[in-house]
Amino acid sequence: MTMSRRALLVAGAGAGAGLLAACGSNNGRGGGSSGTQLSQWYHQYGEPGTQQAVQRYAAAYHRARVKVQWRPGNYDQQTAAALLTDSGPDVFEVNGPTLDQIQGGQVVDLSDLPAGVKDDFNPAVLTPKTHDGRIWGIPQVIDMQMLYYRKSLLKDAGVAPPTSLDALVDAARRLTGSKVKGLFLGNDGGAGVLGGTPLYAAGLQLVTEDGAVGFDDPAAARTLGKLHRLYADKSLLLGAPADWSDPSAFLQGLTAMQWTGLWALPQIEKELGDDFGVLPFPPDGSQGRPGVPVGAYGAAVSARSRHKDAAKDFVKWLWVERTDYQQDFALSYGFHIPARISLARKAARLRSGPAAEAVRLTTDHGYAQPLLWTPAAQVAYQDALSRIITGGASPERELRAVVRKVAGELERVKKKP
Amino acid sequence: MRRRRALWFWVFVGPFAAGLALFTYVPLLWSVGLSFFDAQNTVTPTHFVGLDNYTAMLEDDAFVDSLRTFLVFTAFIVPVTYLVSLALALMVNRVRRARAFFRSVFFLPAACSYVVAALVWKMSIFNGVRFGLANTVLGWSGGDPVAWLAGTRPPWYWLVIVTVRLWLQAGFYMILFLAGLQRIDPVLYEAAAVDGARPGWTVLRHITLPQLRATSVAVLLLLVINAFQAFDEFYNLLSDARGYPPYARPPLVYLYYTALGQGQNLGLGSAGAVILALIIAVVTLGQARWLRLGRTDADG
């Protein structure tokens, strides 16, 4: 049989289309002969072994094929952009979700997943993932930040571990020498990492329970003004090669005290033995209280997923049912507090020394950023804090502008359904 | 024959034209459309808000501040880069031996990524600890370490930002000036010498600079447009995982955080982008008119 060139072209195109369709069935979005395939995104963890661990969990799930994507770079921006498209993840971890993502219908309601064990999730991290009584993310692990101090340096300088903000300012000044600075709050002087912690330490909050601005109070300006004192005294380490999240500056002896996270504890313990202690952010004023910021990456499901139910099933399996994996993820690679109260209690590594103290601080003084605190409010507040700390701007004037901006943001989000 | 030629034209040009339309013009028009809608966390908004986003952007102190930052940066970087690259070109042009070597040495930084250069400046040369390169040099004369990027009084961060860009782009503009210098007819210099003009400032002023006029106009236009688009070195020098400080925040960095950060306010960000594009267009047209771009001396 002979074949015309046109017929050959049509046959070739058909074969090509078939081949492409076959490739397309393995595109991570499901629909192929091998059953549902889910795409799961994680941000890049620094601790070795974490990536292999989550791949192992995914491989152990048999009701769908789960393809893990490990995404370095600006993860929050990547996921925020991906949620606008159909090519984003089905399941993803998120430092949120934000209120705008929830109100914009970008994430799926997961309220039914923790049924029966909801009370076992630490309320400090479950509450910011709850809006209008519905749960939009399942907390994976708890991260917290605290103040690390070098016992020997404080002892040599005759300085006691600070228990008030005034004492912290004084200690940082006295610990500062030609080679060592008193305190490291990040290369921007603390504007980025401290966030609402100083306000909390002054007895205030970012947003009140009834959704109003929580720091329209003279105490806020007083407390933030003291942060400028640290900068003006030249007690702060600035421009370190590694920023606040890395304990290098503390370990290299560039600073006597550093604000960083629980994740740094194993490394600090390994390098310094018992020559360090941990503290909460100290209280300020008569209404003040110690403050420990806590946060949690949570698992969420994209509303654009074509397999929402399968994705929810997987999230339930991994972050509600498989407590062994949750425990492993929290403590075998990095160093986190499991989001489940029962698991945190059982964890041997959290029962002694500074780790146990960190758990106590989280329980007694932990506070989380409220869901109503929008990214726009955060930027306005952080800008003001930066101008106060490094520029010496008037805290009263700066806070007046922030209060106006935050009130506008709260009004905006309350209008939405 | 003509049809065949047209076919080949579209075979070669078509994919690029389609790419340009798909990845440049469609997003551009979409962005202009978004700027008239409440597009919070969506690219397919339904709530038309007219010029509200434009009003909000122009009333936003942070955006206006970012425009001021840009003006300061431009006022500094454009003349400095112009003078440095011209001086390098004049120097390399006069070298008798190893001209290619010097040309390559000065051009090489242009091949370096802005991100890499910014990180080297930030983490190695201008970090704020006593063992940073700049602080070590300061230490030799008994000076205290300077927090180059974290202090606003005095604003040392400008030194870091300007030097990294200067290092990266002076070599590129040097090449443009070199090309211009090599097109100047040597007869002009010989005639000047015969008329008694001594090599140096007089020759530079009356022969070299006028002959480089066309190159200078192109260089100045490119420098201003590049300054408007400043993003990489600012972002990599000053941002951290928690955000970006309010000082030295150029418009593109601000718009990046507004539209693509967690804020995801694509309507507001698009309005800012349109405003910025209009400013660039007006400034570029004004500059071209002022520099009499495209006119010959005969046009008057």
UniProtKB/TrEMBL annotation, chain B:
Keyword Transferase: no
GO BP, one annotated term: transmembrane transport
Topological relation to the membrane, as annotated: Multi-pass membrane protein
Residues that span the membrane, as ranges: 7-30, 70-93, 100-121, 156-179, 212-231, 266-285
InterPro entries, sorted: ABC_transporter_permease, MetI-like, MetI-like_sf
Subcellular location: Cell membrane
One GO CC term, this protein: plasma membrane
Pfam entry (one): BPD_transp_1
Domain of life assignment: Bacteria
PANTHER family: ABC TRANSPORTER PERMEASE PROTEIN, INNER MEMBRANE ABC TRANSPORTER PERMEASE PROTEIN YCJO
Family statement drawn from the similarity comment of this UniProt entry: Belongs to the binding-protein-dependent transport system permease family.
Record's protein name: ABC transporter permease subunit
Lineage, broadest ranks: Bacteria, Bacillati, Actinomycetota, Actinomycetes, Kitasatosporales
